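Illustration 12: glucan endo-1,3-beta-D-glucosidase.
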Amino acid sequence: MKISRSFCRYLLLLLVFFIQKGYVTAKAFTGTYGINYGRLADNIPSPTEVVKLLKASKIKNVRIYDADHSVLDAFSGSGLDLVIGLPNEFVKEMSENPDHALNWVKQNVHAYFPKTHIVGIAVGNEILGSNDLDLQDSLFDAVKNIYNATKKLKLHKMVQISTAHSQNVFGTSYPPSSCTFKEDIAQNMKKILKLFSQIGSPFCLNAYPFLAYMGNPDHIDINYALFNPTNGIYDKKVNLHYDNMLDAQIDATYAALEDAGFDKMEVIVTETGWASHGDLNEGVATLKNARIYNYNLRKRLAKRKGTPRRPNFVLKAYIFALFNENSKPGPTSERNFGLYKPDGRISYDIGFPSLKSSSANSLKVFRAQICQWYYMLILTLCATTLFQLL
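Figure caption equivalent — predicted structure in token form:
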């Protein structure tokens, strides 16, 4: 027993030493499955109800697109891992003023940590793939200032800094091994990648086979996009076969990272999903296809395996999205990516419970108990009456 306690003390001291020396970096993802909790809607459940739903669904990894305090309060003590977002409209301000970045981290992270388990800050979303050149040039300094703020507050070992990219940052991406970053964003991208490689952050990718298929339906097999059985594609350059599009999109990203000199960086999918309803020109956005994609994706992630190019990097993905969001702009599909309807019922069944299911099940149990008690009462009365007659 003494040896065991001494050994445990030694391990604890060793862990403290590694943390102090900077050998332990923040990890913002547990397991393989996460969800994006978007709130551009006026009819979805309260954050408190959402926490109940996520816990019932056993979804631990959650991303939001801002740092709304009602959400941070609701997640307090929940045990859920939360990545918060610095919205694009604040990126330029944070890039120009380190004090503003420090105050933002104080108010939205430090004030809630650790009871609200904030494990990451996503600085902006899809900025380098946008057409806003000023915003592109501001991203690196914003990321650096937010990171320095976490370091000053001694949070940098526990809160991971990231930024998500769309596939617009890539040039040619077919076959996957030929993928590179676009020349016009390469300079800003490399600065960010260099910082991320130093602080242990992953490359965050928003990957949508749904959008890729809609953009080229004549040359893409729908089954390939939906994880259904298919012949897939063969990348002759690296002698690799792909039986689904998401794996190919991720490996294209790894190829671009290698080309840029960052072959050790991990890729995490921060958004992926399939719309269940769309406009007339979005015929592939159906309830059936959305269920197939998300069901197959869940099975794919449960296998805890990597991609053909990176078999040792277990694939991790945040699904887009938790709810259908009726206030989102754009085509109808944008408002119909949710696994859940606004009232908390499932949009389609891929194995998750409905928000109402627990109360409904309780009601069923209660009714069954009432029936059982009533039945026992009748039997008792009958037995008593019979006894008296005898």
